Amino acid sequence: MPPPSPRIETANSLSLRDYRARFLPFALHPVTGTVEPPSSFEIKFESSLSIAPEYLQECFNLIASTSASAYAASSIGWSPSKKRNEMELPDLRYLLVVGPSQSTKEIVEGFLSFMLTYEDGHEVVYCYEIHISHRLRGNGIGRHLVALMEAVGRNAEMEKSMLTVFVENKAALKFYDKLGYKKDEYSPGPRKLRNGVTKEPTYIILSKRLGSSPDR
């Protein structure tokens, strides 16, 4: 792997305020072509260092409730401690969909975490996790969060946007296909075991080339 790009190092060393100003210099909602969250909800931008502990726990709870079984059934496996450690990687950034609960306390109803990084020698914005609560699904929030992540990638001059999807998650595969994501050249292929059995991968790496920033 080549040494870290000065562009990526410089971007990831920015303060949260400067990162937002440089790569997301506009209102976080609405985004053209998507449905903005209900008026009672707000999108917040945080880093793994700035996110409130209770928000981080709620993000973890969303992962566990929506995807723990898929992780466990895959070759990746499910480890709560490893996932928590990954969620606290210093260069990780968060887009949080926050709104009131029945107790009026703000809670995280959805989020997308991402990082500017290297993947197989390419400068990319990589989506680590995206999860939306059941009650907010179907109104365009997932598409909205992906669009924001892609805007960061374009403004940071990354080559492409990348993410990992479990093969069994047909709805997610369909969702990303509509957004222009295709199987990446570095996505793992079938492996032939010593006994002659072919083992299919349990996940797919998808990617999308990032062009110039769309008009806003």
Rg? 17 Å
Number of strands: 9
- Helix percent reads 25-40%
Question: What's the overall average pLDDT, rounded?
Answer: 88
Taking pLDDT < 50 over at least 5 consecutive residues as the criterion, the unreliable ranges are 30-35
Strand order of the largest sheet: 1-2-3-4-5-9-6
Largest sheet: 7 strands, mixed
Helix/strand structural class: alpha+beta
Number of H/I helices: 6
In whole angstroms, the N-to-C terminal distance is 36 Å
Which band does the percent of strand residues land in? Answer: 25-35%
Multimerization status: single chain
Coarse shape: globular
- Helix-strand topology string: HHEHHEEEHEHEEEE
Write a structural description.
The termini are far apart. It contains 6 helices and 9 strands; from the N terminus they run ααβααβββαβαββββ. Strands 1-2-3-4-5-9-6 form a 7-stranded mixed sheet, with helices on both faces. Strands 7-8 form a two-stranded antiparallel ribbon. The longest helix is centred in the first third of the chain and has 21 residues, at 53-73. It is of the alpha+beta class and 216 residues long.
Task: Chart the SSEs and their pairings.
Layout (H helix, E strand, L loop, with lengths): L5 H7 L3 H8 L18 E6 L5 H21 L6 H8 L5 E8 L5 E14 L2 E11 L8 H15 L4 E7 L3 H9 L3 E2 L7 E2 L5 E2 L3 E7 L7
Parallel strand pairs: 4-5
Antiparallel strand pairs: 1-2, 2-3, 3-4, 5-9, 6-9, 7-8
Question: Would you kindly provide a brief summary of this structure?
Answer:
With 216 residues, the protein is an alpha+beta fold. Helices cover 31% and strands 27% of the residues.
